[in-house]
């Protein structure tokens, strides 16, 4: 019961959710924004993946296009693998996604393009938690990306703004 409340209140995955034992292969069909991807499954179906433990600036928010473009440059045309960490309140699969042997969320945080959300790392493997923390500290110390200024966190921005739609990137190279 408490886990169900936590999911609906936070919008995130239950940190106690079972992590998929075997990474799933996929091909990215679309980069929705800096923390959301649509992946073509081997079965031919589609899955919408929300990256674990990060919150990237929204479309229409300062830094949103940079985060989205960074993700597109990394995943379009590349093989990815992902592990499910449950579902969020919108029905998206919360996932850790690897590209080129690196965790995409950690890459975004290290480049200063997203916030790491510590509470969503609860229950994650210790090495993954440590990687996020190191990336967070490195980006902030170097004043990289968002940290070059005084960024507004996306959760605060969403209180008074609506994310822009229609700014996703199809991995064929056309904006959608």
Condensed summary:
The protein is of the alpha+beta class.
Please report which band the strand proportion falls in: under 5%, 5-15%, 15-25%, 25-35%, 35-45% or over 45%: 25-35%
* Record field, number of beta strands: 9
Instruction: Spell out the helices and strands N to C.
Output: HEEEEHEEEHEHHE
Q: Kindly name the structural category.
A: alpha+beta
Mean pLDDT: 86
Low-confidence stretches: 1-17
The level 1 CATH classification is: Mainly Beta
User: Largest sheet, if any?
Assistant: 5 strands, mixed, barrel
How many individual domains? 1
- Level-2 CATH architecture: Beta Barrel
CATH T-level topology: OB fold (Dihydrolipoamide Acetyltransferase, E2P)
**Basic shape:** globular
Q: What is the terminal-to-terminal distance? A: 39 Å
| Rg, Cα atoms, Å | 15 Å
Strand order of the largest sheet: 1-2-3-6-5
Number of helices: 5
User: What share of residues is helical?
Assistant: 25-40%
Describe the structure.
The protein has 176 residues and is of the alpha+beta class. The protein has one domain: Beta Barrel (OB fold (Dihydrolipoamide Acetyltransferase, E2P)). It is built from five helices and nine strands, in the order αββββαβββαβααβ. It has helices spanning 2-10, 64-75, 104-110, 126-142, 154-160, and strands at 24-33, 36-40, 46-51, 54-55, 79-87, 93-99, 102-103, 115-116, 169-170. Strand 5 (79-87) and strand 6 form a beta hairpin. The relative contact order is 0.21.
